[in-house]
Amino acid sequence: MQRIHLIGIVALAAVMLLAAGMASPAAALTNDEIANLSGADRQKVLEAGARAEGKLMFYTTLIVRQAVRPLEAAFKKKYPFITLEYIRMGSSKVVQRLLAEHRAGRTQADVVVASAAPVLKQVKIAQVFNSPELAPYPKETLDPDRMWAPIRFSYNGIGYNTRMLSAADAPKTWEDLLDPKWKNKLVWAESTETGAPLFIAILRKVWGEKKAMDYLGKLAKQNVRTGTGSIRSVLDQVIAGEYPVMISAALHHVAISAAQGAPVASTSPSPVLGRNGYAMMMKGAPHPHAAMLFIDFLVSRDGQAILREARYLPAHPDVDPLPEMQAVLPRATGAKTYIMSPEEHNAVRKEAQALYRKMFP
Q1: Arithmetic mean of pLDDT, 29-54
Q2: What Cα–Cα distance (Å) separates residue 88 from each residue in 60, 68, 248?
Q3: 24: confidence class by pLDDT, cuts 50, 70, 90
Q4: Top mean-pLDDT range of 1-10, 28-37, 273-282, 344-353
Q5: Which conformational region is residue 119 in: left (phi greater than 0), alpha (psi within -120 to 50 degrees), or beta?
Q6: Residue 15: pLDDT over 70
Q7: Predicted pLDDT of residue 342
Q8: For the chain, which terminal residue's Cβ has fewer other Cβ atoms within 10 angstroms, N or C?
């Protein structure tokens, strides 16, 4: 009897183990599956996964006090179970860090807001994703490859120090910069994505090769200085009085600083250099559920309203910039604009950078 009883126990245990194996949970979702979830339970799945992850790492070029902290506070209020950590750098440094992490096989960033799409696409570390919050956006503003989502637009023109120049004396066209009085007094940033190479690329596109190259040859004789850091950092150097005039200054940066009482103003020569700011998800994002919730938030009306209050120019078609920011929009100044997409820029960036290094050593 004891032997029969023992056999029964062993058999029962085997059945229970088999049942447990059959009832085991489904395999965890991949980053690609998480980034492209759809259906009625999408939000529930993302929130459950984000609760388990508990945090999010955000690399950005946005101004911390002006935009990152308000975004962090609102996102934390919406999702109190996610701790948002961030690192603020210029676009070039963001790219360098992401590539270094990729080479080391230790991706730390989940979401990136920087001019990094061309490089991240090229090395295939940008994640394809889809957000239902993008439904209202015009198709032409979206990435056909679904590797980035627009969160704002930027326009670059001329920035100048108002203590060093009057509005009447400030250069108002790109050709004005060729006046001999500006020799040794002009500065720009060297950032491939947002600085001098972008300026060169757009002029060649809009003006044509002959006119653009003739102009750049003359501009090179003005001994244009190269400021250190991002275009934001270079504008700060202009505000500090290190240089009177900045070429290819972000007009919203000028407006933000002017509203805070800084001695800076801008002009919008045609063509105004246009580009979009965008959010990307890293293919190896360590917190993919939280990453998608954050991207949803950034492109939603709520997230876009925060960027609006931070004096950025929102990408959402239903969220207008603040009235004081609308003054820097090309439609307000009548200037022609050329908005260069990341993909278009990628096709010409190496050549533009080579020209920059050759002509402006």
Answers
A1: 97
A2: 5, 9, 21
A3: very low
A4: 28-37
A5: alpha
A6: no
A7: 80
A8: N
* The token pair that represents 286 in the structure block: 């360590």
Both structure tokens of 326? 């609308």
Structure tokens at 64: 């911390």
Alpha-carbon gap, residue 6 to 11, rounded angstroms:
9
Task: Using alpha carbons, list the distances in angstroms from residue 11 to 4, 15, 17, 20, 211.
Answer: 11, 6, 10, 14, 87
| Dihedrals phi, psi of 357, to nearest 5 degrees | -65, -35
Cβ atoms of residues 37 and 46 within 8 Å: yes
What domains does the chain contain, in order, with CATH numbers?
A: 31-152+276-314 (3.40.190.10), 154-275+323-359 (3.40.190.10)
Closest CA to 343 of 105, 146, 68, 207: 146
Give CA–CA dist 359/361, Å, rounded. Answer: 6
Q: Which helix (H) or strand (E) holds 303?
A: helix 301-309
Give pTM, 2 decimals: 0.74
Residue 112 pairs in a beta bridge with 59, 280
Mean pLDDT of 288-305: 98
How many of the other CB atoms lie within 10 Å of CB of 185? 17
Closest among 111, 127, 116 to 56, alpha carbons compared:
111
Which letter, b or e, does each residue of 214-239 get, where b requires 16 or more Cβ atoms within 10 Å of its Cβ?
ebbeebeebebbebebbbbebbbbbb
Q: What is the DSSP string of 233-285?
A: HHHHHHHTTS-SEEEEEEHHHHHHHHHTT-SEEEE-PSSEEEEEEEEEEBTT-
How far, in Å, CA of 252 to CA of 256, rounded? 6
Residue 60: pLDDT band with limits 50, 70, 90: very high
Give CA–CA dist 163/169, Å, rounded: 12
